[in-house]
Design brief:
Blueprint: E1 3-4, E2 11-13, E3 21-22, H1 28-31, H2 44-55, E4 60-64, E5 79-85, E6 88-93, E7 97-102, E8 107-113, E9 119-125, E10 132-135, E11 141-144, E12 176-181, E13 185-190, E14 197-201, E15 206-211, H3 215-218, E16 220-225, E17 230-234, E18 241-243, H4 248-259, E19 268-273, E20 281-284, E21 290-294, E22 298-303, E23 319-324, H5 331-334, E24 341-345, E25 366-372, E26 375-387, E27 394-406, E28 410-419, E29 422-429, E30 461-466, E31 472-477, E32 492-498, E33 502-503, H6 504-510, H7 512-522, H8 525-532, E34 535-537, E35 552-554, E36 571-572, H9 575-578, E37 581-588, E38 591-597, H10 600-609, H11 613-622, H12 625-635, H13 652-659, H14 665-692, H15 696-706, H16 713-722, H17 726-729, H18 747-760, H19 762-771, H20 779-791, E39 800-801, E40 804-805, H21 807-822, H22 826-835, H23 839-849, H24 860-864, H25 870-875, H26 878-898, H27 903-912, H28 918-930, H29 952-962, H30 965-975, H31 977-986, H32 992-1002, H33 1005-1014, H34 1018-1029, H35 1032-1041, H36 1046-1053, H37 1057-1066, H38 1075-1081, H39 1091-1132, H40 1143-1152, ...
Parallel strand pairs: 10-33, 14-18
Antiparallel strand pairs: 1-27, 2-3, 2-23, 4-38, 5-6, 6-7, 7-8, 9-12, 10-11, 12-13, 13-14, 15-16, 16-17, 17-19, 20-21, 21-22, 22-23, 24-25, 25-26, 26-27, 28-29, 29-30, 30-31, 32-37, 34-35, 35-36, 37-38, 39-40, 41-42, 43-44
Domain Vps41 beta-propeller: 173-305
Pfam families: Beta-prop_Vps41 (PF23411), TPR_Vps41 (PF23556)
Biased composition (Acidic residues): 45-57
């Protein structure tokens, strides 16, 4: 277990001067670090902890891919160095061979021998981008090396005067591979051109080499080894082997020869650092700004020439930090033996992590992990802030040690930042399981080489370390071949991160622009090579045995040539390689293991192996895709490639056309079917586990959850039934039918459960019948079982269950009714509901099925008593009984009025049940009589019922009651006295004698008075009012309706002072008796209490009547006067008439109309037309000057016509005196007259002369005297 520490050898930031200022960086993790030397728990605590750890799911899964590297191990060769960058893996061997392979198929792309001795390190430039996995809609997978975006060129000039290089991802043909070897050579080989190669001899074993990220432009690389020199090499001649010119003499000679043109461009070597022992590792950062190297004294970081502004030209190759080696025992001797491992991490391609232990970092910050000996460092490097105020020196960069981990039981043989919070360490163990040191030497130089090492090594371990507190999250032993003969320097660890698979349709939208740009730039050749190097992977989508599983396979060209596109056989691909997420490749000289993060399918397998079926089922339910990946993993190995797994050659348009397809419904259905099968399989295992542990109740709940619509229901229900665990499984059995599809369970299963509960648990039976669809079982079979129990008296109607009499019997009867309904026998069901007194169900059934006419007359009493229990029938008041029976009675009323049921039969059936049901006969007859089953409407008598339209239903109901009038009289008299009185007044069909006898028995005096008055015994009725009721007001009212009783009333009342006083108070409003008569009949000397007040009241009442009479007379006179005034006004009102013009009217105006018999006196209807004279019938004209006389009746006359047609002066009488009087009148009125008798044929012309006001008054008076002479008004209307 590591510890997080910061010791004496903390990181030192180096200023430009030779004096270094030490800077120790600490954080919270250092204060809370753990160390292996801490006391460990012992005893049972260790065992408990081990047990607990065993139950934790591992983070990683492993697989050997040694077989994919078979070409590497030919002729007894073994690997010595390897690097994994992007989609390429380059392996160097102890024989000096270099192999380039492509992921994911591990297909060999290029193999060459670059050295005569062991290859010690490998470097690639430029760094290829991580491959992209594109998942097609049919499950096929394309493994593409998509080109990354090109970085914009920096405008700054390099220190040497050239433009600053631009770092970008290049096509595979532009990649260079540099290798170093113990033979002292560095080989730089182009993968695209086998002739583009450099071989440089440094005369000493070279342990590390690192190409510039922009080697294609600047031809620069760094190297170092046993000589202890960090050498910068720039340039070099291609295709030849050259010697390094690191010595001053050699460099001077090379420079002199070059100046005269004889140097041959052999390149230039510059020693940047030396004198601190063997250099183990050199690495350029991902941005190219920083370079790290490790020698025997510690870790060094310096600024490179890339991306350096011109003003900072002096900072090139300047060291910025140094972390000294730990000052612990063993380091002095082993610092030169232990090989340091360095890795620059890329946070953009790392997996997201919930823990963020390092806080916020700028985009220019870079992270470096270093493993060396028993120590691991995590560093952050960032640009400096220029000149510092306290020292005056320029700060080129800053490096901070964020974590430093110390391991006490191992040596770091490989290191990688697995996630931002998790460090992966390949541990070469120095202590065994009992914490004892491993014997033997680990120094290969002392052991006589790798073939003569003592076989004391242990299996290496891959440990996941929490970088925050140094805790070991997971430790896995790796089973490597010949591990016992290997040392810590023999292991190699490389990492690769694959992003989540991209859907083909998304790729078509997002990457189309990038791919087309690459096509344009390469003239189509690069895109051809790109598509020809893809991977087509088809995975199965279900567990169908008939469907042959397909394999993961790859198809590509065998060389890097741009025109090589021949098809080659597909090779199988291991599924772990194409899974998204981080991957670790751990290599030894004889073996290779791939470690990947466990996914959901692995977790599913893990929980199933540990019989955690609940979690497994939940996992499949929440993540259905895990089933598909599980199938793919199971089918990826030992399967032959199918035709669908071969990539198709074609152009870029064809690729995007294929990507545009979508999943078919059949594929989706098969996927869903596979998921359901897997869930069912896990569910069965889960149920078996619960039943084996006797957890029946939980097993029932799980069955309802996991079985769904599976046919396995039958097996599990029978399993529960055989164990008599009906209660545990019954609530979860499918309760509804699947419609047109076949039912999940056979009907016998449901029938078995129901028949069990018929005898075992009747309440549960009722619940099941409420829930279960009747189509699930044979209804007739269950009906027969229930009828058998009822006929046998099991249970009996009197049995008591849980303190409730007849509970089980009632439940069975109601269940039988439900089954009858399901069987299409509603009448039988209604009979059952009536027997069990289930009023709601019975009434609803009657209304839905219209079954009132099917009720047997003998069942009518039971129907009415649906809501009335035996106890309530005995003790409840009548009002409550009426409320309880109102609904059944209303249905009976409806049927009675409809004619489907006889009212007499209803009352007869109720009467046969005895006196206990007499109230219900009353309710029934009252409802018929009043038209309502309630009591509110019956409270008002007919005397006070408002007038309304004829109600046929009410009339028919009353007619039915009057058919049983005597029965109604008895019941109304017994239960509703008000209704009794109403019935007596409204009906005439009852027996008066019986009614009177009943009233005498019950002492109903008002009712008896009414009956006596109806049969003519008015005097007896009056005496009952006076003697029994003593009600003076009622007696007087009764006498008012019978005038012959006044004398009897007065005679009978004269010796009763109270009646005398009442008479005096009431007689004032009676017109049939004289008040004075009452006073005269009062016996003398009779003391009458309140006589004075009575007489005063009588007098006041008489005065009041007289005052009222006077007021009425005044009102009458006022109304007469008003009428006269209205008449007068009407007479004064003007009369409207029309005037006309025309030749006829002009002629009439000129005197051509005739008076007398020849004149048109009437219209065809006998009346003068509007605008015409009522006498002559001539039309009026505006030019006529003769006076016109109009009347209220609407007739208008010429003055002459009005005079001539008076009774005394009609022309037919030849009254010359009248004519003479007319002439005189006209003369007086100012007319110049010339009148000739109509018989003579002469005409008359009258000329009106203008008059003064006095003349006008005289004119009006004369006209009035003429009109009023002998008669008033219009001659026609007179």
């Amino acid at each position: 277990m590591p510890s997080d520490e910061a010791g004496d050898d903390a990181l030192a930031q180096l200023p430009p001067s030779s004096v270094a200022t030490a800077r120790e960086v600490t954080d919270e993790s250092k204060n809370s670090s753990l160390n292996l030397e801490m006391d460990q728990p012992s005893g049972n605590q260790d065992e408990d902890k081990e047990d607990q750890d065993e139950e934790e799911e591992p983070h990683l899964k492993f697989t050997k891919i040694t077989g994919s590297l078979a070409s590497t191990y030919r002729n007894g060769d073994s690997t010595s160095a390897a690097v994994l960058v992007g989609g390429k893996i380059v392996v160097g061997t102890h024989n000096g061979n270099v192999h380039v392979l492509r992921l994911p198929s591990m297909e060999g792309l290029r193999s060459y021998r670059g050295h005569k001795a062991t290859v010690t390190s490998i470097s690639l430039s430029p760094v290829p981008s991580a491959p992209t996995v594109v998942k097609g809609p049919d499950g096929s997978i394309q493994f593409l090396d998509l080109p990354g975006p090109r970085t914009k060129a920096n405008a700054h000039q390099s220190p040497r005067g050239a433009r600053a290089p631009v770092i970008s991802n290049q096509p595979a043909s532009s990649i260079y591979v540099a290798t170093s070897s113990l033979d002292g050579h560095v080989c730089v080989q182009s993968l695209g051109d086998s002739k583009d190669v450099q071989l440089r001899n440094f005369s000493r074993p070279v342990q590390a080499v690192a190409l510039s990220p922009d080697y294609l432009r600047d031809r620069t690389y760094l190297s170092g080894g046993l000589a202890g020199q960090l050498i910068l090499t720039v340039g070099g001649k291609t295709g030849v082997s050259t010697n390094a010119n690191t010595s001053s003499a050699t460099a001077a000679a090379s420079g002199w020869l070059g100046s005269i043109g004889l140097g041959g461009h052999s390149g230039r070597d510059t020693v940047l650092h030396s004198g601190e022992g063997t250099i183990h590792c050199i690495q350029w950062s991902r941005s190219g700004k920083w370079v790290v190297w490790v020698n025997e004294e510690g870790i060094k970081i310096m600024r490179s020439h890339l991306k350096l502004p011109p003003e900072d030209a002096d900072d090139v190759w300047r060291r910025i930090a140094h972390a000294a080696k730990p000052n612990r025992p063993g380091w002095k001797d082993m610092a030169g033996v232990w090989k340091a491992r360095c890795e620059w991490t890329d946070p953009n391609i790392r997996e997201a992590d919930t823990q963020v232990p390092h806080g916020k970092k700028s985009q220019e910050d870079e992270q470096l992990v270093v493993g060396w000996g028993d120590t691991a460092w995590i560093l952050h490097i960032r640009p400096g802030k220029g000149y510092t105020a306290h020292s005056g020196h320029k700060q080129v960069g800053v490096a901070d040690i964020m974590h430093k981990l110390h391991f006490t039981d191992c040596i770091v043989s490989g290191i990688s930042l697995y996630t931002p919070s998790m460090l992966a360490i390949l541990a070469y163990r120095t202590r065994d399981d009992d914490d004892r040191p491993i014997g033997g030497s680990h120094d290969p130089s002392k052991a006589g080489g790798r073939h003569r090492r003592l076989k004391t090594g242990l299996e290496p371990q891959l440990r996941l370390i929490d970088v925050k507190d140094g805790a070991e999250i997971e430790v896995d032993d790796l089973q490597m071949s010949r591990y016992d003969s290997l040392s810590a320097q023999d292991y190699i660890t490389s990492s690769l991160y694959l992003r989540q698979h991209i859907a083909a349709d998304n790729l078509a939208n997002e990457q189309r622009g990038a791919l087309e740009a690459a096509w344009e730039a390469a003239g189509g050749g690069y895109a051809t090579r790109l598509l020809s190097s893809g991977v087509s992977i088809a995975s199965g989508s279900n567990f169908s045995k008939e469907r042959r599983p397909s394999t993961f396979s790859i198809r590509s060209s065998s060389t890097w040539g741009p025109s090589q596109t021949e098809a080659i056989p597909a090779e199988p691909v291991h599924p772990y390689i194409i899974e998204p997420g981080p991957k670790l490749f751990i290599q030894s000289p004889y073996d290779c293991i791939l470690a990947v993060k466990r996914d959901l399918s692995d977790r599913l397998e893990w929980v199933i192996q540990r019989e955690q079926y609940a979690e497994a089922w939940q996992l499949v339910d929440e993540h259905p895709e895990v089933v598909d990946s599980t199938v793919a993993d199971a089918q990826s190995i030992s399967s032959r490639p199918s035709e669908s797994s071969k990539i198709k050659s074609g152009n870029l348009a064809d690729f995007f056309a294929d990507s545009a397809s979508v999943n078919t419904p059949a594929e989706s259905a098969r996927m869903q079917q596979a998921v359901e099968k897997e869930k069912l399989r896990i569910g069965d295992l889960w149920l078996r586990q619960l039943i084996e542990t006797n957890k029946w109740e939980e097993a029932g709940r799980v069955a309802g959850k996991v079985l769904g619509k599976s046919p396995n229901w039958e097996h599990w229900v029978r399993t529960f039934a055989q164990a008599s665990k009906f209660d545990e499984i019954t609530p979860y059995i499918p309760a509804t039918s699947s419609g047109e599809e076949q039912n999940i369970l056979p009907s016998t299963v449901y029938e078995t459960v129901l028949k069990h509960y018929i005898s075992a648990n009747r309440p549960r039976l009722k619940k099941l019948l409420d829930i279960w669809d009747p189509e699930l079982f044979d209804v007739t079979s269950v009906i027969a079982a229930i009828e058998k129990h009822l006929n046998c008296g099991d249970p009996s109607e009197e049995a008591v269950e849980d303190g409730e009499p007849g509970r089980d019997w009632r439940i069975l009867v109601e269940c039988l009714a439900k089954l009858y309904i399901a069987d299409g026998r509603p009448k039988d069901a209604l009979r059952c509901y009536i027997r069990s007194q289930n009023a709601d169900a019975a009434i609803n059934l009657i209304r839905e099925e219209k079954l009132m006419d099917s009720i047997d007359p003998h069942d009518i009493p039971d129907f009415i008593l649906l809501r009335v229990s035996a106890d309530k029938l005995k003790s409840a008041p009548v009002s409550e009984l009426g409320e309880l029976s109102s609904e059944p009675i209303s249905l009976l009323i409806e049927e009675t009025l409809r004619g489907a049921m006889s009212a007499i039969s209803v009352t007869r059936q109720l009467d046969h049940r005895g006196l206990a049901l007499r109230p219900f006969i009353f309710f029934y007859l009252r409802a018929l009589w009043t038209g309502s089953t309630g009591e509110k409407e019956s409270e008002a008598s007919d005397d006070y019922r408002p007038r309304r339209k004829f109600d046929r239903r009410l009339a028919e109901g009353r007619a039915l009651v009057e058919d049983q009038a005597d029965t109604a009289v008895q019941l109304f008299a017994e239960y509703d006295r008000e209704q009794f009185m109403s019935f007596l007044r409204a009906s005439t069909l009852y027996s008066y004698d019986n009614a009177a006898h009943l009233c005498e028995e019950r002492h109903y005096i008002p009712e008896l008075v009414y009956i006596l008055s109806k049969i003519g015994q008015t005097r007896r009725a009056l005496f009952l009012i006076i003697d029994e009721l003593g009600d003076v007001h009622q007696a007087i009212e009764f006498a008012k309706s019978h005038d012959e009783l006044w004398d009897d009333l007065l005679d009978y009342s004269m010796d009763k002072p109270n009646f005398i006083k009442g008479l005096l108070e009431e007689v004032g409003t009676t017109a049939s008796i004289d008040p004075a008569e009452i006073v005269r009949r009062i016996p003398e000397g009779l003391k009458i209490p309140g006589l004075k007040d009575g007489v005063r009241h009588l007098i006041q009442e008489c005065e009041r009547q007289a005052s009222i009479s006077r007021g009425v007379a005044r009102v009458l006179r006022a109304e007469v006067v008003g009428g006269l005034e209205k008449l007068r006004d009407n007479r004064k009102r003007g009369v409207r008439f029309d005037t006309t013009s025309g030749e006829e009217n002009i002629a009439e105006a000129n005197g051509e109309h005739k008076h007398g018999t020849d004149a048109k006196l009437r219209t065809k209807d006998g009346e003068a037309g509007t605008g015409h004279c009522g006498g002559c019938g001539a039309g009026f004209n505006v030019e006529v000057e003769e006076p016109l006389i109009g009347f209220v009746c609407g007739h208008v006359w010429h003055l002459t016509c009005l005079v001539l047609f008076s009774p005394e002066s009609r022309p037919e009488k030849d009254n010359k005196g009248a004519q003479e009087a007319l002439d005189r009148l006209k003369t007086q009125l100012g007319y110049k007259t010339g009148y000739t008798n109509g018989s003579s044929g002469q005409s008359a012309a009258d000329v009106y002369v203008t008059r003064s006001v006095g003349a006008k008054v005289a004119h009006a008076r004369l006209i009035a005297s003429v009109i009023d002479r002998g008669e008033v008004g219009c001659r026609l209307c007179w």
